[in-house]
Amino acid sequence: MPVYVVGHKIPDSDSICGAIALAHLKNQIGEASVATRLGDISPETAFILDKFGFEAPELKLSYAGEEVYIVDHSELTQAPDDIAEATIVGIVDHHKLGDLTTSTPLECWIRPVGCSNTVIKMMYDFYNVEIPKNIAGIMLCAILSDTVIFKSPTCTTADIKCVEALAEIAGIEDFKALGMDMFKVKSAVEGTPARDLVMRDFKDFNMNGNLVGIGQLEVIDLSVFDDIKADLEADIAALKAEGNRHSVLLLLTDIMKEGSEMLIVTDDLAKVESAYNCKSVDNKVWLDGVLSRKKQVVPPLQDAFA
């Protein structure tokens, strides 16, 4: 029986590329593994996989009775629905430690870096396993995505060094140009239904017993949202009601201006405003310098709910 390597619900590029890269590593060291996913891939991820010749991992939603290696999170809300009936054999992540628990010992690689694929690169180095050219390509793209081409405050020296090393393996001369190509794909929102955009990079968090959903759309120019912002606002309101959530926040992130406009639907606006020391106008606020949901959005909101 193989170990299934899987990322979080509504998978991003780090989650998908990390599952592929880690499954390959595990197979190389004699641990039979299969990369899977918990949802549809994003346009950015499709671009990355196509560029380096990969198919999307198998869509697998049930893991009862299986052994599972978790990638890019350690949260119950982001794990398979039946994770309690599976055996978690490992976690590789770069976020805060979540609420997943295990009944048996497990392998954990958790580092305060910008991307899970940076940690996976460290694992390849630890096991002295050569990284194939195409896998190096998807790994570096995942790091560029998660660190917003090194602009994110989550980016570390380790992320930059890993990208440089992976670019050499993959034969990518201008990795920053590749990163911009990826963000151009992310910025192509015209004709996409509002719900698809809201859920493109969306995570639920349990904040002191309150379910809070936070989505993020990263683009190179916020003007792409001018004609659809009202639709996005309506959709996050609907999403809040459908999921019995306390709050739903949507970050519209401009990677060139290095900031985010936050759209807010909540049962307690004062709590959200206090978390970010801001005053919203029509349930919207510009957060200068905010690029990272992980480091700049989730922690202060969790503190506000504590």
UniProtKB/TrEMBL annotation:
Keyword Manganese: yes
Record key words, sorted: Hydrolase, Manganese, Metal-binding
UniProt-listed Pfam families: DHH (PF01368), DHHA2 (PF02833)
Domain of life: Bacteria
EC number, as in UniProt: 3.6.1.1
Enzymatic reactions: diphosphate + H2O = 2 phosphate + H(+)
Molecular function, one GO term: inorganic diphosphate phosphatase activity
Enzyme class, UniProt record, top EC level: hydrolase
SUPFAM superfamilies tied to this protein: DHH phosphoesterases
The protein's required cofactors: Mn(2+)
GO CC annotation: cytoplasm
Occurrences of domain DHHA2 (ranges): 179-305
Annotated protein name in UniProt: inorganic diphosphatase
Organism of provenance: Shewanella pealeana (strain ATCC 700345 / ANG-SQ1)
Organism classification: Bacteria, Pseudomonadati, Pseudomonadota, Gammaproteobacteria, Alteromonadales
